[in-house]
Specification:
globular, WH_DNA-bd_sf, ADP binding, leucine-rich repeat, Rossmann fold, Disease_R_plants, NB-ARC, alpha/beta
């Protein structure tokens, strides 16, 4: 049937084109990225037809995922297949390896149809079969366990010559397990003072040059951020919400009290503390339960509880605490982990007494205690 053949060809072309679409980075204001991309491209050296694994290492919030996305967008069309697996640590912990393996196989197959069958016994074989026949670009984002690497990119001989695998992680030992030498690892450094100031001014003042009295404030805030792009962005967005000079002074005073704090979560906590009660409630719901979930469904639920969700969500977005992309909530993993820590501290040893549960192990403990 000619019409069916045409429809099938159109669907196949659309699927292949969709697999070649760049990742969404349009909302991000990217500072200091060009020099990092240049260094990564040297490590990638895609003209050489070997199988190469490149590590991106650095502390949380320093911009590893941002760099990996930029590299993916720059290079993915030069490979016969590509896959960007986000939040490996979180998905592996909550759903196991098969969910990640299915996505990888689907991406390498240029198939828009989800794999619904249980493939646990044959997943590795399917990955090897797909990856060995064409050059692939694979990005594994936020890996924290060697078992995750085993499940998704166990050995170099799985892959066709010319393939590149990028692994982002906070843990250097993960890259050593993968057999990487120091010259195959890019250590993401913090922003320098000028880059941090540029990023802060953008998020705090937009395209306007700040008044002279705010220039000194900006430099002090930047010094507290330790050059972490995530912290600079969130601090900038927080100061943008200040409506009077007095509010700016109060925020700066609070930040000064946290100057000696090294933990990213503690630095970000000031933004949570500045929220109204309903904004905190919705923020914790998203952090614990709703990342990657439908914003429309959640708004319907919160609206029924009179939590003023539209106003709250706009406030969280203005503070750079959440994003909504294609109708689903997104949140940086450091911000998500901060929210979960807040809930954990409600009662560290008794999960049944916490306001929210997201970990299967804690749910089982809570149900056992309540029986």
């Amino acid at each position: 049937n000619q019409s069916e053949l045409v429809s099938s060809m159109v669907e196949k072309i659309q699927t292949v084109l969709a697999s070649k679409m760049p990742l969404d980075q349009e909302e991000e204001y990217l500072v200091g990225l060009d020099r990092r991309i240049e260094k990564m491209m040297e490590l990638m050296d895609i003209q050489v037809k070997d199988v190469r694994i490149i590590g991106i290492h650095g502390v949380g919030g320093v911009g590893k995922t941002t760099l990996a996305k930029a590299i993916y967008n720059k290079c993915h069309h030069k490979f016969q297949a590509s896959s960007f697996i986000e939040n490996v640590r979180e998905v592996y912990k909550s759903k196991g390896p098969m969910e990640l393996q299915k996505q990888l196989i689907q991406d390498f197959s240029h198939d828009k149809h989800k794999i619904n069958e249980n493939i646990s016994s044959k997943a590795v074989g399917m990955i090897k079969q797909k990856a060995s026949k064409k050059t692939v670009l694979l990005v594994l984002d936020d890996v924290d366990d060697k078992n995750q690497l085993d499940a998704l990119a166990g050995k170099r001989d799985w892959f066709h010559p010319g393939s590149r695998i990028i692994v982002t992680t906070r843990q250097a030992e993960i890259l050593k397990f993968a057999g990487l030498q120091d010259d195959a690892v890019y250590m993401v450094e913090e922003l320098d003072g000028e880059e941090s100031l540029q990023l802060f001014k953008y998020h705090a003042f937009g395209d306007q040059e700040p008044q002279e009295k705010y220039t000194k404030l900006s430099k002090e805030v930047v010094s507290i951020s330790n050059g972490l792009p995530l912290v600079v962005q969130v601090f900038g967005s927080l100061f943008k919400t200040a409506e009077t000079p007095e509010e700016c002074d109060e925020l700066l005073k609070d930040l000064r009290s946290r100057r000696q704090v090294s933990e990213v979560h503690e630095k970000l906590r000031i933004c949570y503390d500045s929220l109204k009660w309903n904004e905190r409630y919705i923020f914790l719901d998203i952090a614990c339960l709703l990342v990657g979930k439908s914003s429309e469904d959640a708004i319907y639920m919160w609206d029924g509880d009179n939590l003023l969700p539209h106003l709250a969500i706009r406030s969280l977005q203005n503070r750079s605490l959440i994003k909504i992309n294609k109708g689903k909530f997104e949140m940086h993993d450091q911000i998500r982990d901060m929210g979960r820590e807040i809930v954990m501290t409600e009662n560290p040893s008794h999960p049944e007494k916490r306001s929210r549960l997201w970990c299967e192990e804690d749910v089982v403990k809570a149900l056992t205690k309540l029986q």
